[in-house]
Structure formats: structure tokens, C-alpha cells
Amino acid sequence: MTTGLRELKKQQTRQSISNTATRLFIEHGFESVTIAQIATAAQVAKMTVTNYFPRKEDLALDYHETFTASLATTVADRPVGESALAALRREFLAAAARHDPVIGFSGPDFARMIADSPTLTARLRELHDLREDALTHVLATETATDPGDLTPRAAAALLTAAHRTLFRQITDLTLSGKDNQEIATIVTSTAHQVFDLLEPALTDYAVRTQPS
């Protein structure tokens, strides 16, 4: 088997395990389902499940790496002349238009699964904090800030709080029964309001300049 086929097989196995786990979590509740039950349903060994997913929570929140890196990646990839705030506003609006799960689009069953599980709710808070840490690091690097300067941390906290607020709104709208198109329309309007609140402080912060 070539390396490419081997990696594809691994990805397929990982996705199958995640899909099986999510189905069981939705049907029975996250807290009630065991790793052994997931392994049996996915027709793999228990060790295979834990090799792919060291934490049970990550079977449900399997996009966690993309989620925690998302804001930092957007800022790191912004074009010359664009601020961190403008880049994050632009990307959020694009994500809302495509109903991206990373910003909170999930469907009512999945959203209820998260809301009903104290463990998953706590893990989601942790992921928001890790996302703030990643954004802080990028902002500090991009602005060549001295280690003792809290400006990157403060800016990251504000920007992450905006996304956390919008994520919560999407979840609440999902649980209320609105479909993705309705949610996208509402959250797009809200996003402009939220990001506008940050404009006075962050309009000129971390603007990408021409490389020297």
C-alpha cells in the first residue's frame, strides 16, 4: 500500500469512528456512551479509538484543531494593508455565508448534544481559551511586541470574545429551531454590530505591512 493510500485509509477510519461516536452521543447522551461501546459499533478495537482520539470529548468535537487555529490562521494569512480586525470580520462573514461548523453551525441534534453535556460544554470553553492563546501568539509575533506587553493578549481577548459571542448566538438560534439560512442572515447582521464595537480600539492595530 502506498503512503497516500495508507493515509487515506487512516482518514477514513478516523472519520468513521467520529461519525459512529457522534451518532451514539446524539442517541444516548455523551456522558452515557463508553469508548468500548463506540469501538464495538465502529467495528474497531478500543485501542484504535483511543489512538485516534486520546480524549473522549474530541470524538464529538473532532474539528478542535481547526477551531483553535482558525483565528490565528486568518490573521497570519491576511493581505498587506489589512488589520487583524478587518481580516477576522471578513472571514467570519464568509464563514456565515457557507454555514461553516467552525463558527457554530451544527444542526439542532448536535447543538443539543453539546448543550446537554457538562463535559462537552467545559471542553468547548477550553477550546475558546486555546483559540485566544493561539491568536495572542500570532499578534505578538506580527507586531513584534515585547514579552511584557499585554497589548496582544488584550486584543486577542477582545477579538476572541466577539467570536465567542457570535458562536453562542448561532447555537441559541439553532436550538430555537431556525434553519441555517435564517441563522446566517441574523448572525451576519449581529456580526457587523459586534465588530463595529471593536473598530474604535482596533482599526489600526496589527495592519499587515509590506515585508522589508
Provide the succession of SSEs.
Answer: HHHHHHHHHH
Helix content estimate: over 70%
CATH arch. level architecture of the largest domain: Orthogonal Bundle
- Percent in strands: under 5%
Instruction: Outline the biggest β-sheet.
Output: none
Summing up helix and strand content along with how strands pair, one would put the structural category as mainly alpha
The termini sit apart by 46 Å
Question: How many DSSP H or I helices?
Answer: 10
Total domains: 2
Q: Mind sketching the topology for me?
A:
Layout: H1 3-28, H2 35-42, H3 46-52, H4 57-60, H5 64-76, H6 84-97, H7 108-115, H8 118-142, H9 151-175, H10 180-202
Helix pairs in contact: 1-2, 2-3, 5-8, 6-10, 8-9, 9-10
DNA-binding region: 34-53
Pfam family, one: TetR_N
InterPro entries: Homeodomain-like_sf (IPR009057), HTH-type_TetR-like_transc_reg (IPR050109), HTH_TetR (IPR001647)
